[in-house]
Amino acid sequence: MKFPLISDIASTSVVSVDITSSVAEAIGMMLDKDHRNVIVIDKDCFKILTVIDILNIQKNKLDLSVKLSEVHLDIVPVIGREKNVLDTMEYLNNSIEYICVINPDKSLYGIVTHTDITSNIDPDTLMDNYRLQDFLKLNRRIKWVKKDTITFDLLKTMANDAFDNAVIVEDMKPIGILTTKDVMGLIRNKNDLNVSVSEYMSTPIETVPRNSSVKEALEFIKEKHYKRVVVVDNKGNLSGIVTQKELISLTYSRWATLMKEYQKELSEINNILKDKNKEYETLASTDSLTGLYNRYKFSELYLSSYLAMTQRHNEMSMILMDIDFFKKVNDTYGHNTGDNVLVQVSHALLKTLRNIDIVCRWGGEEFIVLLPTANLENALYLAEKLRVYIEELDIDIVGKVTASFGVTQIIEGDEMEDAVARADEALYLAKNSGRNCVKSKLAV
Predict the structure, then answer these.
(1) At 317, is the pLDDT very low, low, confident or very high (cuts 50, 70, 90)?
(2) pLDDT (tens digit, 9 = 90+) per residue, 220-259?
(3) Range 359-381 average pLDDT
(4) Averaged over 263-267, what is the pLDDT?
(5) Does some domain include residue 337?
């Protein structure tokens, strides 16, 4: 098996502008070239202006004549054109779906997207028995709205929450989708945004059943040239969305297995990965910002901890916590400061909890903690201890932050999503009770 070089799969049809260009010039190039983003060259650094950035610029009524250097733009990771496609794995935890490909002299050669990577994965190497419904048990949040939602309100929400798509439903059945491509059309045509989103959604929407395999989902994406699959249950109700990026991440474990099984045929890959195995294992199980476990690893650890609990007749509990008003921190001080808050809160969790406790960044400003051997009373005590410790932190620039906590005890027969749902209900109660407090939810 031979994986292609980055130069073989990169797209060289890239719209790029200099950091000294104005926002208006960049938007004009995007519209002229019918692109949903533009690469911004800032000396040896590459940044990106996306549709979501444009929505935020319009929402904040920013003067379009300002220079791009005055706008906060995400930095795009880079990779040499001589690298192997397998080397892109280390970038998959990055929220940006593009990688800039550079020449030996550091100039821009092109870009690689998740679509490019997906198109170069052999479906026969995928986990044929890994079903989408198993992945969706992680309860991944998606954006869905009813068909009479006003387009302007939806675009505002997409900008605030950084969603690149929204599924439109009727009686929980998906009837359309609005993606960044559709948004670019609205911007180009200067459409009336004070009408229902059903006027502009892409319809009909093609879906896949939740019992499909990862292989089938990837083949569907490649055939349709989509960036995501919309998943439905056997009644046609919306179950979730799976992106290219998530499918790529799932394939890595299958690749690792093949590498061990076919030593001779895969000697080239084994040489590439000789010094990277530990790095990839860490990448697959940890959150890149905080160093805590990620959702995939947490799901694995939940199963092993649950099995130990039932075999030893122990008790076990769960805490779901959310940093209060975190969006205000990002809006006031910027995302770099927000990231620093997440890191310091992560350190506080590790310092306060026991060695046997399992801590995970659940997503955004949410963290989840599994407490082996702890009953509800012990879990409430630990949650309150965490609440006080976080409240007393003195964080650079921001000062003080608080957090809300939802606690539940795990009982025999609990699926992970059942326990998470109860903890989430308790967290919702804590937020409605004024935040900065601890609430619990018992299993029925």
Answers:
(1) very high
(2) 888 888 888 899 999 999 988 888 777 776 666 556 555 5
(3) 94
(4) 55
(5) yes
Is this prediction's pTM over 0.90? no
Q: Which residues are part of the catalytic machinery?
A: 365
For 413: left if phi > 0, alpha if psi spans -120 to 50, otherwise beta; the answer is: left
- The helix-helix angle for 214-224 and 244-261 (nearest 10°) equals 120
pLDDT for residue 244: 77
User: Do 132 and 224 lie in a common domain?
Assistant: yes
d(CA 386, CA 281): 29
Q: Which two tokens stand for residue 200?
A: 């502009």
Q: Is residue 279 part of a domain?
A: no
**Rounded Cα–Cα distance for residues 405 and 428 (Å):** 9
| CA triple 78-82-84, angle to 5 deg | 85
Q: Where among 102, 120, 138 does a domain terminate? A: 120
Which residue from 178, 250, 169 is spatially nearest to 212, judged by alpha carbons?
A: 250
Residue 1 — very low, low, confident or very high, per pLDDT cuts 50/70/90? very low
Number of domains in the chain: 3
pLDDT value, residue 375: 94
Burial 66-77 (b: 16+ CB within 10 A, else e): eebeebebbebe
Give Cβ neighbours of residue 77 (< 8 Å, ≥ 6 apart).
Answer: 91, 94, 96, 99, 100
* Residue 289 domain flag: no
* Same domain for 144 and 242: yes
CATH value at residue 27:
3.10.580.10
What's 325's domain CATH number? Answer: 3.30.70.270
Q: Which domain holds residue 104?
A: 6-120
CA-based nearest residue to 193, from 204, 203, 182? 182
398 and 301 in a single domain? The answer is yes
User: What percent of the chain stands above pLDDT 90?
Assistant: 52
